[in-house]
Amino acid sequence: MGIYILRRLVQLIPVLIGVSVLVFFMIRLIPGDPANAMLGERGTAEARVQIREALGLDKPIYVQYGIFVARLLKGDLGNSFVLHRPAMPLILERFPRTLFLSFYAIILSVLLAFPLALLSALKKDTLIDQIIRGGVTLTLSMPSFWIALLLIITFSVKWRIFPFAGYGKNWQEHISYLFLPALSIALAGSAVLVRNLRAVLLGVLQSDYVRTAHAKGLTFRTVFTWHVLRNSLISTVTLVGLRVAYSVGGAVIIETVFAIPGLGRFLLDSILARDYPVVQAITLLLAFLVISINLLTDVVYALVDPRVRYD
Amino acid sequence: MINTEERQPVGAALSLKKQPTLAVSRPRWNRLNRNLTIGTGLVLLVFLIAWIGPLFLSYDPIMQDLNVAMQGPSPDHLLGTDQFGRDVLTRILYGLRIDLQFGIFATVYTLVFGVAIGALAGYYGGWTDTILMRFLDMLIAFPQLVLSIAVIAMLGQSLVNMYIAIGIVGWITFARLARGEVLVAKALDYTLAARTIGARDGRIIWRHLMPNVITPAIIFAMSDVVLNILFAAALGFLGLGIQPPSPELGAMIADGRKFMLSTPNLTTFPGLAIVFIGVAFSILGDGLADYLRPQS
Q: Is A27's Cβ below 8 Å from some Cβ in B?
């Protein structure tokens, strides 16, 4: 197992290099001179030189990349142009909130999707199945921010059950404050999950080993718990792992709707303020997050599925 | 002896294959026709509403008339007016056009680009393929929305840059689909036959592989139209997409947000319009999937 994880980590190196190259080139995407773009019309010649030096734009491109990576390894992602502080601590301060929201959303989407997919698969082609599948199509067409607004109107304004903005001060408050934001992200995610899980469950239900189990005279409950559920949970791990990137992306939008002081909101504010080092740093951090989760998914997958070979 | 041994499995395979198709073909055919017909009908309806609908309305989607600002639904303004006195229905119809155009053009160009690259990589294999797959691994590491937003942040807000941002991530799925299909199809007999009669690579890819490879891409394209429209709406909502006063649906929802409690129709109806397009294309996609791949 240790060797398997080690091998996966080694395989990650080219991806990490690629990701860093892409993020490195981001600032170079800015049309014209980035220093001009960052300063706008008010910038003095002195400030321009300062920015060019700070970004190392006067050096050859490979040297610039070397410096970028060397700084990156030290956790130095440059200074925020707006807040005049190193970008990394600013980001790390907000990161846990986005992480909390993303995971909350994933947990909710699994809690919603699994029973629905199960019901849909067990009652295949019945009215219940049709309704669930119709609901899935409908949910997939809804913008998450629109769902969020509808949830606010219903649950925060009319029924006053959940707060409509903010993050809360302690755990209990986080769970209550982030319920509607997480649900807004989870609904779209759970629709995809229901669709995929239904297919997985149908595959398992029609498999030979389930037929054998039935033929042996096992009760439905036993077949279901030990054969169907166990084998579908394995695919669920992968499906859920794949949803993480979407959940993080969703958090970016939803944080702005609910005024949650997380990374998504910070990213957006930084974009509007042309604070490029912060944009670069957040993009990089979120990419690393997705890569780590994917790695974790593969490891969990290998742990729960004995067919996955470690060598 | 060898002959009979060879024949038997072929015959067995054929009869095995035939049975299930015969058994399910009739009821299935009815069901898929239904999805395809409803889907096509709904998509046509969306287009009709977006392009013919405004002809029946006498309002301008951009011109402001503060005398009639923030009115509820009435015979004059079926869905009411916004804070600038613009007719909400008119704006939604023009908004449908804008979002549909973006959704469809973005899908078409990422499809062409993605399928071409995926097919070439799958066909030639080797280094081209390895590099492409590693490149895809890297792009997939980014949450797509975050990467697109970051690209727009660097390039600036404009329609062209929206197409570039969606292009960077949008072709990935098409390339993967096409590559996978080509890997399977290039090992099949008809490809071998084409090569045996001396067909060149270009002809094999274009005339023999492409018709078989394009099916999953076209089916996915229907969901991709929805995804791209949701992307455009999300950018509009965040203030990074098509700029006001253009009536983009996401931006309209963002505008209406301030008046969510007093005039909820400003947020509800543009959202419903997006849902309408989404459902139409999703049903068409399901119908196409059943129609083009009846065996699946």
A: yes
Cα R_g (chain B), whole angstroms: 24
pTM of the complete model: 0.86
- Asked if B64 has any chain A CB less than 8 Å from its own CB, the reply is no
Contact yes or no for B3/B10 (Cβ under 8 A): no
CA atoms of B230 and A147, how far apart (whole Å) = 12
Q: What is the ipTM of this complex?
A: 0.86
At A305, phi and psi to the nearest 5? -110, 110
Chain A contact for B142 (CB, 8 A cutoff): yes
Q: Does the pLDDT of residue A37 top 90, yes or no?
A: no
For B231-289, how does the pLDDT look when each residue is reduced to its tens digit (9 = 90+)?
A: 999 999 988 888 878 889 999 999 888 888 888 888 999 999 999 999 999 999 988 88
Q: Do A232 and A200 touch, CB atoms closer than 8 A?
A: yes
Output the CA angle A177-A182-A186, nearest 5 degrees: 160
How far apart, in whole angstroms, are the C-alpha atoms of residue B186 and residue B183?
6
Q: What is the pLDDT of residue B23?
A: 45
How far apart are the CA of A229 and the nearest CA of chain B, in angstroms?
24
Torsion sign, CA atoms B110, B116, B117, B119: positive
Cβ within 8 Å, pair B278-A29: no
A284 Cβ under 8 Å from any chain B Cβ:
no
**Which residues of chain A does B240 touch, with a Cβ-Cβ cutoff of 8 Å?**
268, 271
CA distance B112 to B178: 10
Please tell me the total number of residues recorded for chain B in this structure.
Answer: 296
Instruction: Provide the terminal-to-terminal Cα distance of chain B, rounded to the nearest Å.
Output: 36
A250 and B CB contact within 8 Å:
yes
Angle at B169 between CA B163 and CA B170, to 5 degrees: 65
What is the torsional sign of CA A152, A170, A289, A199?
A: negative
**Closest Cα in chain B, distance from residue A18 (Å):** 6
Report the distance separating Cα A208 and Cα A203, nearest Å.
Answer: 10
Distance from CA of A21 to the nearest CA of B (A): 10
Q: CB–CB of A293/A241 below 8 Å?
A: yes
What is the distance between the alpha carbons of residues B124 and A311, in angstroms, rounded to a whole number? 29
Task: Give the single-character DSSP code of A86.
Answer: B
What amino acid occupies position A171?
W
CA distances from A50 to A40, A65, A67, B293 (A): 14, 19, 17, 60
